[in-house]
Amino acid sequence: MDLPENKGACCAMKRRRFHKWSAKSAGLFWLSLLLIPTVVFGQGEKEKRVPVTFRYTSGHSVQSVAVSGTFNDWAKDADPMFNSDSGDTWKTRLYLPYGTYEYRFLVNGKQWVRDPENPYYGGENSNSLL
């Protein structure tokens, strides 16, 4: 039986639960508004990657070729190239973000060679602008 003196306590309890829940909901709502642009829109232009095919043609006996540059911190073995047709052409394809890169080919693990097919040189290295 609902007595008049118990009705106020009941409504106050429901009101308190509602306020507690709505405060949590509001907090989560505002937090999501802050995070959504970072997660969804933060992967803008700088995250787009472009396929780049590197080719090196040698006129002599070559055992291995790798491409190394600012895109892989000049790691000598990070991006090996492959000779698929057993000829003199070595290739690899990388997916790089837009930017300007310096690179060289590492032939037989010892000899650094500029890209002879890239006319845009930057000092000691070949340069590419994506």
Describe the structure.
The chain has one helix and seven strands. The protein is an alpha+beta fold and 130 residues long. The protein folds into two domains: 1-42; 45-129, Immunoglobulins (Immunoglobulin-like), CATH 2.60.40. Strands 2, 4, 5, 6 and 7 form a five-stranded antiparallel β-sheet that branches. The longest helix is centred in the N-terminal third of the chain and has 38 residues, at 4-41. The chain is elongated. The model has no long low-confidence stretch (mean pLDDT 75).
What's this, in brief?
By secondary structure, the chain is of the alpha+beta class. The protein has one helix at 4-41; strands at residues 49-57, 65-69, 89-97, 100-107, 111-113, 121-122, 125-129. 29% of the residues lie in helices and 32% in strands.
Radius of gyration: 31 Å
On the 0 to 100 scale, the average pLDDT is 75
Major β-sheet profile: 5 strands, antiparallel
Distance between the termini: 78 Å
Helical region count? 1
**Can you identify the CATH superfamily of the largest domain?**
Immunoglobulins
Shape verdict: elongated
CATH topology description of the largest domain = Immunoglobulin-like
How many domain modules? Answer: 2
Count of DSSP E strands?
7
The percent range for strand residues is 25-35%
Fraction of residues in H or I helices: 25-40%
In terms of structural class, how would the helical and strand content be classed?
alpha+beta
CATH C-level category of the largest domain: Mainly Beta
Q: Give me the CATH architecture of the largest domain, please.
A: Sandwich
> Which residues form runs of ≥5 with pLDDT under 50?
none
Helices and strands, in order, run as: HEEEEEEE
